[in-house]
Write the structure tokens for this entry.
Amino acid sequence: MSACAPGPIVFAYDGSELAELAIGEAGELLHSDRPVLVVCAWQPFDVGFVPDKSFHVDAKQAPEVKRAAQDTAAHGAELAKRAGFTDVRSLAIETAPIWQGIVKVAEDQDASVIVIGSHGHHSGLAGVFVGSVASAVSAHSTRTVLITQHRD
């Protein structure tokens, strides 16, 4: 990856308020002229994201879940545009575990950074600092990972 043409920013977006916060903070911290890919990762039977409240999802129905994930990723892309990014795409991927799909997309896209919000649902000491998906992405990626924490 050359310094003149950094890879895209990959946003791991699950539709949560914390994921929205991560996009907003990245808009303040990172150059908005860089390309952005907003990724919503999903898996059947354990959706892995927060669908829009108006959309009822039966996790056993993969086509419905896929459509909701696509809508969620598109919503994240709109948020990225509002945060000042101009070259924005969205992508919904079916993957298990969720972290692995995020890491793979970032590798495939030669991403310069992965932006993710941490929900802090991980058990043990690591959970005090980082959520399980964010922790796994950070531990398994060779890319820089920007993790937004929930602030009280």
